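$ ./design --mode recover --in tokens.txt
reading tokens...
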């Protein structure tokens, strides 16, 4: 999964608020991978890092998986192919939402490989 190119449909653009939890602000673009379903039977959710303006869709590379230990679904982290982020940077950028879950960020480095971006 990590390293694959995907297209994210953005339904919560940078600067927006969660449709139900009105105090949850999105400092990054967030959306889903159309046609790919996760364990919750909804389309796979994805954080988009490295795009500093609201967008409707984005194509990039999966750089990490956010594995939620106390939830049924995981999240993917997608970025431009020419940008890289450390695990610590990823954790900081997604904390706005992941603070409510027990989660771990898995990157290529966790498999013994250097991130090639």
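writing sequence...
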């Amino acid at each position: 999964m990590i390293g694959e190119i995907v297209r994210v449909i953005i339904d919560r653009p940078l600067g927006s608020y969660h449709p139900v939890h009105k105090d949850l602000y999105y400092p990054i673009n967030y959306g889903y991978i159309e046609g790919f379903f996760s364990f919750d039977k909804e389309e796979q959710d994805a954080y988009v890092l490295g795009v500093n303006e609201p967008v409707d869709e984005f194509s990039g590379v999966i750089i990490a998986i956010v594995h939620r230990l106390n939830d049924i679904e995981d999240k993917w982290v997608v970025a431009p192919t020419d940008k890289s982020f450390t695990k610590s940077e990823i954790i900081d950028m997604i904390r706005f939402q992941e603070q409510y879950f027990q989660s771990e960020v898995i990157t290529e480095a966790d498999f013994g490989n250097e991130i090639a971006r």
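exit 0
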